[in-house]
Amino acid sequence: MTARAASRPVGTVTRGTTNPNRLRRMDRWIAAVHGAELRRATDPVAVDLGYGAAPWTAVELLARLRTVAPRARVVGVEIEPARVAAARPYEREGLVFRHGGFEVPVQGSPALIRAANVLRQYDEEQVAEVWQRLCVRLAPANPATGSRGGLLVEGTCDEIGRRHVWVALGPEGPRTVTFATRLGSLDRPSDLAERLPKALIHRNVPGEPVHAFLRDFDRAWASAAPYASYGARQRWIRAVRDLTAGWPVADGVTRWRQGEVTVRWEALAPRR
Question: Does the keyword Transferase apply (predicted)?
Answer without folding.
Answer: yes
